[in-house]
Amino acid sequence: MQASQFLVTSTKPPAACSPLVPNPAHHRLTAASSTVRFRQISAVAAPPKPKTHSMPPEKVEVFKSLETWATQNVLPLLKPVEKCWQPQDFLPDPTLPFSDFTDQVRALRERTAGLPDDYFVVLVGDMITEDAIPTYQTMINTLDGVRDETGASSSPWAIWNRSWTAEENRHGDLLRSFLYLSGRVDMLMIEKTVQYLISAGMDPGTENNPYLGFVYTSFQERATFISHGNTARLSKEGGDPVLARICGTIASDEKRHENAYARIVEKLLEVDPTGAMIAIADLMNKKITMPAHLMYDGHDPRLFAHFAAVAQRLGVYTAHDYADILEFLIGRWGLEKLEGLTGEGRRAQEFVCGLAPRIRRLQELADQRAKKLKPPLVKFSWIFNRELSL
Ligand SMILES: [Fe+2]
Ligand SMILES: [Fe+2]
């Protein structure tokens, strides 16, 4: 029986799960599990059909007219392959005599010895998120007016997407090899999770609309910059400067990518302020869905929520970061002072510019409620089913 024949009717969010860092796994159709109750979809009203192709067709011209601009202002933010780091720069050298290679692996294992299990759960979740790169390239290629029409198109939008994917592809490769050599995690369960996740895909609600798509990627790249920056800080504090350098190097790629996507939205705000402002409000109103929200390991149907709760507890990515990112982008895009808006555009502006304090207030209330509850213990297959408190 297909999962799409069922509607989730009851999922209780975990205590540590923030209502403000959305965990769409709570609200979406999901694979069968003993802890989730179903009823057949035929017995209830059909869920609303996802919106698609929401950008008016004439706006495809906006992206066509920005091609020269993109070539001059976006593509230079890519790094030539010969100037890029590669995973092998950070890993034990397998071409060395065997005993020298194993010495390097031993040193790697000794450095990670001081890092706790909960750190590894977050690092694994980050690696799995990176490893689902085929999904993200597909997602960008759903966007009208900027997709790669042939697979090797010479449009700057398509060149960006392929080269961005190629840069991102190194992130998962490096983290995966590092985790494999560390011996601290169950690679088989991690590999299964990656396969499930790529099969499941993602739906960030971008509706084939590049306005929504580029707002989404601006937000997400900053979120990954923050997250990898925090895993770098924690590995330095935990005694592994090499892993700190790995996470910091990935974070700096994310920053460069954030800059490219934010620059595109900045340009859209210049050429079509109302259209871009409404897109920002639309996506923030839906809440930014995390790219790995459909994560599953074959056992835990709320794996993403549990991973996100550990990341929140460790301070790697929190609801406060979500509000910080929003405030940062409001400042970067000058949204408070944006002029030339229609009435609808002004309402969108008012909504977005007032959102961060509301998010913070609601999060503080959620934090206070969570403090009164005993954090649940959850087993993670990635660390051989050892339990962690959320
Ligand atoms: Fe990445
Ligand atoms: Fe990224």
UniProtKB/TrEMBL annotation:
GO terms for cellular component: chloroplast stroma. Binds 2 iron ions per subunit. SUPFAM superfamilies: Ferritin-like. The keyword Lipid biosynthesis applies. Fe cation 2 binds at residues 168, 221, 254, 257. Transmembrane segments: none annotated. It comes from the Eukaryota. Keywords: Chloroplast, Fatty acid biosynthesis, Fatty acid metabolism, Iron, Lipid biosynthesis, Lipid metabolism, Metal-binding, Oxidoreductase, Plastid, Transit peptide. The keyword Transmembrane helix does not apply. Gene3D superfamilies: Ribonucleotide Reductase, subunit A (1.10.620.20). One of its GO terms (molecular function) is stearoyl-[ACP] desaturase activity. PANTHER family: ACYL- ACYL-CARRIER-PROTEIN DESATURASE-RELATED, STEAROYL-[ACYL-CARRIER-PROTEIN] 9-DESATURASE 6, CHLOROPLASTIC. Belongs to the fatty acid desaturase type 2 family. This is stearoyl-[acyl-carrier-protein] 9-desaturase. It comes from Citrus clementina.
